[in-house]
Design brief:
This protein has ten helices and 20 strands. By secondary structure, it is an alpha+beta fold. The strands form five sheets. Strands 9, 10, 13, 14, 16, 17 and 20 form a seven-stranded mixed β-sheet that branches. A four-stranded antiparallel β-sheet has the order 4-1-8-7. A four-stranded antiparallel β-sheet has the order 3-2-5-6. Strand 2 and strand 3 form a beta hairpin. Helix 6 packs parallel to helix 7. It is elongated and about 85 Å long. The chain starts with a strand and ends in an 11-residue tail after the last helix. The mean pLDDT is 92.
């Protein structure tokens, strides 16, 4: 059984480490590995210029914290943050999940500096006080799916001019007979996995960046099937059929604006959120050949969407430089722009060229690897159990 531990922690009378001010403390949680070494499980934010910090409440999955083993040693380090990256250790303490589960609010842990503990008269370098602590059950992706949660698959395809004339064999949209191009390969690989979790097999499919007949105005979101009132396609074959028809009826143009489609899927997810149930989770597969023209607006839209039951998979097709797209895939730090910060990471970016010559299953595995965790974390963070729990 998976669990999560939620804690509110504060420091009391921590040692001063800075010459011209107080410390800038933060905490790191490490789990002990089988070989006796330690692996980082969680890091808090640092708080400027204080010896009595109050950190924001933290939540750690017990699998990450201690491999769900209640007796695994957990080392908690308290550091003084420095901008050059050479953080100074204030002190450390050791605990286990078993001890934390028995901990009551008000309990304190003494921080001991390993280089000072043998000095005469040394007691500790401050204390970490547990103000609140709660250990709760966590459900897995499979438990949510078995409980009735459905994945709602949405596709967005780049029809901008940089893809090349579809009639030219060098175009990324070029189709020769039944031979798939990069767009259709990615749709098929990802869709064939997701369709097993979507009972109605109806998938909204959109294009962006093309001129549409009869007015030939540029559209940043249009239905592949030509029906603005009902963009749903029946199954993966339906998406591919609509794509084949669309590529022969529109004029590739530009610019490459992704925020309208992301915002549209976010509205679908927001409507589902009103159910207050783990019932509908949305996955947008966005396929593009280059850098987004509306990058800042896309970041804003993704940050808003990070509070909703949805994830975004971006597949870069072609050989463009996708370095800027990696910014959206915020594995190391949450996406931010100005003072706005995403609530969680919801984007997975994969360049198709890395899987062009491999089996479709390898591409699907890589683009979908973060979805189970993103879905489970979203609902667990809200303490929403699976709709139906016949096995629990």
């Amino acid at each position: 059984m998976q669990k999560s531990i939620k804690m509110s922690l504060k420091g009391v009378k921590l040692d001063k480490k800075d010459w011209f001010g107080k410390s800038d403390p933060f905490l790191e949680f490490h789990r002990q590995l089988l070989d006796g070494s330690y692996a980082l499980a969680h890091r808090t934010e640092f708080i400027k210029n204080t010896l009595n910090p109050n950190w924001k409440p933290i939540k750690i999955n017990t699998r990450r914290l201690c491999d769900n083993n209640p007796d695994t040693v957990i080392r908690v380090d308290c550091f003084d943050w420095n901008s050059n990256g050479t953080h100074d250790l204030i002190g450390e303490f050791f605990t286990t999940l078993a001890e934390l589960e028995q901990t009551r609010p008000g309990k304190s842990f003494a921080l001991v500096h390993p280089k000072k503990k043998s000095k005469r008269g040394y007691r500790h370098s401050g204390e970490i006080v547990v103000e609140q602590i709660l250990v709760t059950r966590e459900y897995s992706f499979l438990e949510y799916i078995q409980g009735g949660c459905e994945l709602n698959f949405v596709v967005g395809i780049d029809f901008t001019g940089s893809n090349g004339d579809p009639r030219d064999s060098s175009s990324l949209h070029y189709i020769l007979g039944n031979r798939p191009n990069q767009y259709t390969q990615a749709i098929t690989a990802v869709g064939n996995v997701i369709q097993d979790y979507d009972s109605d097999q109806l998938y909204p499919a959109y294009g962006f960046g093309a001129r549409l007949p009869p007015t030939w105005q540029v559209s940043h979101q249009f239905s592949l099937n030509g029906n603005p009132a009902d963009p749903n396609c029946q199954g993966i074959d339906g998406i591919l059929a609509a794509y084949h028809q669309c590529i022969n009826s529109v004029q590739l143009y530009g610019p490459t604006n992704a925020s309208p489609i992301i915002g549209n899927v976010a509205r679908m997810a927001r409507d589902a959120l009103h159910q207050q149930q783990a019932k509908d989770y949305f996955i947008l597969l966005l396929l593009t050949d280059g850098i987004l023209t509306d990058m800042d607006q896309t970041i804003h839209t993704i940050i808003e969407a990070s509070e909703l039951p949805m994830s975004i998979i971006i597949v870069g097709v072609g050989d463009a430089d996708f370095d800027d797209m990696e910014r959206l895939d915020s594995d190391d730090a949450l996406l931010r722009i100005g003072n706005r910060v995403a609530k969680r990471d919801i984007v997975q970016f994969v360049p198709f060229r890395e899987f062009r010559n491999g089996p479709p299953a390898k591409l699907a595995s890589n683009v979908l690897e973060e979805i189970p965790g993103q879905l489970a974390d979203y609902y667990n963070d809200r303490s929403w159990a699976p709709l139906n729990q016949p096995y629990y």
